[in-house]
């Protein structure tokens, strides 16, 4: 009957009706009411199972929210003092506390070598750029909390074009990076963070952690002009937390042609993050920008070689969240 209907169909509508009838006949269901009846039955069967699995998950979320609240409460006196001095100081410290709590909960965030960041005075911090530099946000939060000072940051121009970002960028002293403005910030005694690889490194680097700095030396010239030390920085497993599809040819072409950072990023995995700060490279009037850029690149590469297993592995990075008798490198 179904075959005769399909072969004798005169138009698209009648053909689709025949297909629908054939599916009904194949499934053994006489009408749409039977479909609804089956769906209702499946919903009745699986709803209790869904609830059984969701409720424990909600309890875990509630526990983590409680831990985050305790992170904030632990610093309530610091926050009260910060707000009494300046509204934006209080806002910065509050957000830093929230980000620090998130890093501790989701990534077990650690920082090694924070004592190398000066308590006073300027320094240029040069870091490897992950697909999403969430590790740098955790670092900024830890500097605000433990060092009691903010760190200016250099970001790509496209961030300043995102609606709603302006206030956030202003409060956290983010600049788009003309050399003169960077030098001015350092000469004023501020810390300044910059990633020479920038968006290119974020999109096109991968789990082998290549540094994609090209021939960039502007950051080195900034350090020379401001006469400040340079501190290399790298975060272990940052590529396992978030990964980019920028290695696909289409997204590479899109960026090179239109400067559009449209490569999808995936992840958010709760892998272990450890930020390592290298020894400061002091100001030396006898070297030029090219030589200093090479020294800084070697410094960051040394941190990668010492603290990152190549290629990075998401499962291994997840397992590092669990306590081990073996100390990290």
Automatic annotation (TrEMBL):
Coiled-coil features, chain-numbered ranges: none
Entry's transmembrane regions: 41-70
Domain of life assignment: Eukaryota
GO molecular function: acyltransferase activity
Presence of the UniProt keyword Transmembrane helix in the record: yes
SUPFAM superfamilies the record matches: Glycerol-3-phosphate (1)-acyltransferase
Keywords recorded for this protein, A-Z: Membrane, Transmembrane, Transmembrane helix
Ranges for domain Phospholipid/glycerol acyltransferase: 110-233
Keyword DNA-binding listed: no
InterPro entries xref list: Plipid/glycerol_acylTrfase
PANTHER family (UniProt xref): MONOACYLGLYCEROL_DIACYLGLYCEROL O-ACYLTRANSFERASE, TRANSMEMBRANE PROTEIN 68
Name of the molecule in the record: Phospholipid/glycerol acyltransferase domain-containing protein
Gene that specifies this protein: tmem68
């Amino acid at each position: 009957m179904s075959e005769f209907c399909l072969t004798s169909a005169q138009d698209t509508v009648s053909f689709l009706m025949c297909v629908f009838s054939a599916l009904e006949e194949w499934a053994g269901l006489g009408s749409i009411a039977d479909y609804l009846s089956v769906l209702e039955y499946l919903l009745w069967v699986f709803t209790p199972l869904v609830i059984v699995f969701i409720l424990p998950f909600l309890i875990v979320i509630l526990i983590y929210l409680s831990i985050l609240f305790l992170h904030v409460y632990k610093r309530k006196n610091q926050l009260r003092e910060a707000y009494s001095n300046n509204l934006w100081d209080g806002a910065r410290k509050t957000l830093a506390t929230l980000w620090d709590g998130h890093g501790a909960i989701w990534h077990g965030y650690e920082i090694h070598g924070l004592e190398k960041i000066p308590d006073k005075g300027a320094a240029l911090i040069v870091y490897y750029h992950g697909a999403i530099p969430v590790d740098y946000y955790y670092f900024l939060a830890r500097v605000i909390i433990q060092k009691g000072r903010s760190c200016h940051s250099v970001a790509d121009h496209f961030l300043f074009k995102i609606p709603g970002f302006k206030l956030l960028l202003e409060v956290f002293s983010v600049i788009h990076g003309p050399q003169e403005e960077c030098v001015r910030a350092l000469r004023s005694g501020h810390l300044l963070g910059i990633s020479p690889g920038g968006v290119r490194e974020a999109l096109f680097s991968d789990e082998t952690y290549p540094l994609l700095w090209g021939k960039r030396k502007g950051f080195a010239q900034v350090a020379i002009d401001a006469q400040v030390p340079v501190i290399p920085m790298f975060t272990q497993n940052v590529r396992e937390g978030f990964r980019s599809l920028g290695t696909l040819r289409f997204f590479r072409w899109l960026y090179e042609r239109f400067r559009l950072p449209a490569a999808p990023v995936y992840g958010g995995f709760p892998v272990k993050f450890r930020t390592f700060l290298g020894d400061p490279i002091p100001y030396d009037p006898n070297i030029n920008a090219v030589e200093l850029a090479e020294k800084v690149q070697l410094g960051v590469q040394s941190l990668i070689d010492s603290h990152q297993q190549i290629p990075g592995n998401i499962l291994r990075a997840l397992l590092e969240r669990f306590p081990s008798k073996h100390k990290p490198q």
